[in-house]
Specification:
Blueprint lengths: L1 H5 L19 H15 L4 E5 L6 H13 L4 E6 L7 H11 L16 H17 L4 E6 L7 H10 L10 E7 L1 H8 L2 H4 L2 E6 L5 H14 L11 H11 L3 H17 L7 H10 L9 H4 L8 H4 L1
Helix pairs in contact: 2-3, 4-5, 10-11, 11-12
């Protein structure tokens, strides 16, 4: 009903980090450039911070797509870092970077972490040192990393040449990962880049909605969201891209159900009731958007 009512070729607000729908504001362009440079130059650890739905995975995907297309880089990605042991974590890193596994163990994680670290170090030297390639590991949902594994990451940052780290690390997560890092000064002082993803402004939110509609085949001159409707979308979504997309899609569904080709304020209100409630901006969302250095006192 949604596609037919609005003349779309595909769903404009599907909840995936599809690069075809990636929308770049001045802020996201700067974040993408800075993250790419940090990882590509082997500067060490980059941390991307933001609340749920702020666009961390989309940013990672945009940078990863560029890195994958360049033979100078060896890229690995870990989407679920909930490992039970250091050995399992190291084995996952070896696999993500497509390195050969160490000698077969009786069960996953049975090898000693020391042997796995030495194996990973040897693989990194062999694969990158001679021809100048840079190995890069990206870990999404990094707030799920057990505390003990942050020490593992710190040890991996010791693998270096004179001019660069052998392994660049990128972590994307919510506020908890910053607090965990700052509790470890020997890790926090190795962070080469902090990126704090902010909510979209109203103009950016309007641009994102229009961009996704056009990418999905919307052909009418005027957006189905008038100025008042767009303001209400932005206000209710708190500027978070994922919530904005979900609310925009549901609002268009409501409008389509009543045979309309424009979205009204009552449509958005009905759509908001169909979606799970969002946390109040005074707590979790805005708490995680505080500048990273303000977490210092909390972390002590």
């Amino acid at each position: 009903m949604l596609l037919e009512a609005f003349g779309l070729q595909r769903d404009p607000f599907v909840d995936t980090a599809d690069p075809a729908f990636y929308y770049e504001t001045m802020a996201t362009a700067s974040n993408r450039r800075r993250l790419y440079d940090c990882l590509a130059q082997g500067r060490g650890l980059a941390v991307v911070l933001g609340p749920v739905g702020a666009g961390k995975t989309s940013l990672f995907n945009a940078v990863t797509a560029r890195l994958f297309d360049d033979p100078r880089f060896l890229v690995g990605l870990i989407l679920d870092p909930t490992f039970e042991s250091e050995a399992q974590f190291l084995e996952a890193i070896v696999a993500a970077l497509a390195f050969p596994a160490l000698a077969a163990a009786p069960s996953p994680g049975a090898l000693q972490p020391r042997l796995l670290r030495e194996h990973l170090k040897r693989c990194l030297f062999e694969a990158t040192a001679a021809d100048g390639r840079q190995a890069i590991l990206l870990i999404d949902e990094a707030q799920l990393l057990p505390d003990a594994l942050l020490e593992t990451l710190r040890s991996l940052l010791n693998f270096q040449l004179d001019e660069r780290k052998l392994l660049s690390l990128g972590l994307a997560g919510q506020a908890e990962i910053v607090q965990a890092i700052l509790r470890r000064p020997n890790l926090s002082d190795r962070v080469a880049l902090w990126l704090d993803l902010r909510p979209l402004t109203e103009a950016e939110a309007s641009g994102l909605v229009d961009h996704r509609l056009r990418c999905a085949g919307y052909a009418r001159e005027r957006s189905p969201f008038g100025q008042d409707a767009m303001h209400d979308l932005w206000r209710r979504s708190q500027g978070l891209p994922r919530r904005l997309g979900a609310l925009a899609r549901e609002s268009m569904e409501v409008a389509a159900e009543r045979g309309a080709r424009d979205v009204s304020l009552p449509d958005i209100e009905d759509a908001a009731r169909r979606l799970p409630p969002i946390s109040d901006p005074a707590d979790d969302a805005l708490e995680s958007l505080r500048p990273w250095w303000q977490f210092w006192k909390v972390a002590q």
